[in-house]
Amino acid sequence: MIDTAFSVAFTLWDYSTSWIELIAVLLGLVMVLFTITERHWGWLFAILSSALYFLIFWQSRLYGDALLQLLFIALAAWGWWLWLRGHALTPLRITQLTPRQQWLTTLVGMVLWLITGRVLRDFTDTDVPWWDAFPTAFSLVGQYLLAHKRLENWWAWLAVNVVAVGLFAWKGLWLTSLLYVVFAVLSLVGWRTWLERSRGVNT
């Protein structure tokens, strides 16, 4: 079954895309669209997409991103529960970080990047430890902010998506690289949409 999943779905301009990558991309797109519109079902598609991308990234020796998918599955389940439950039994609202929280969040992301890069460099056979570590680290930051409906989650995802475009292209995952181009654009759309919604709620 694994062999079938990794078999070629189509070839375009001499670049082949597997069935598993094609399905993961489609699930990822649905996930982001649901997230932008604040629909909790996006978390389900996040779980399904992450499960497939674990297999894809592991085969590509992107161990940081692969293990991150397992954490994403757990965080998606938690985020789903949080969105449904709300905060203190009230609906979770879009909020923004204070300037101090923004600096602290960025610092946490940088520290995670350094730790993850060092681990990948010293304990795996990946050929892109620091490159792989960046989206791994800042995806954790983005996922945490997203689960709490912080507006700044979209800036974290934008940084992750831009770096990931080059990383996945380097690994020959061209459809996934294209997906992250779309993700980068949708990060801006998501930020704009959530900003307008937060202003509408607070006025």
Overview of the structural elements:
- The protein is mostly helical and 203 residues long.
- The chain has one domain.
- Helices cover 76% and strands 4% of the residues.
- It has 8 helices and 2 strands, in the order H-E-E-H-H-H-H-H-H-H.
- The protein has a two-stranded antiparallel ribbon.
- A hairpin with a 2-residue loop joins strand 1 and strand 2.
- It is globular, with a radius of gyration of 17 Å.
- The N and C termini lie far apart (54 Å).
- The model has no long low-confidence stretch (mean pLDDT 87).
Indicate the structural class: mainly alpha
Secondary-structure element sequence? HEEHHHHHHH
Number of domains: 1
Rounded to an integer, what's the Rg over CA atoms?
Answer: 17 Å
Overall average pLDDT: 87
End-to-end span in angstroms? 54 Å
Residue share in β-strands = under 5%
| Shape field | globular
**Low-confidence runs of at least 5 consecutive residues:** none
Task: Kindly summarize this structure in a few lines.
With 203 residues, the protein is mostly helical. It has helices spanning 2-5, 19-36, 42-59, 63-85, 99-123, 129-147, 153-170, 174-202, and strands at residues 8-12, 15-18. It is globular, with a radius of gyration of 17 Å.
Keywords, separated by commas or semicolons:
globular, about 75% helix, two-stranded antiparallel ribbon, mainly alpha, 8 helices, 2 strands, about 200 residues
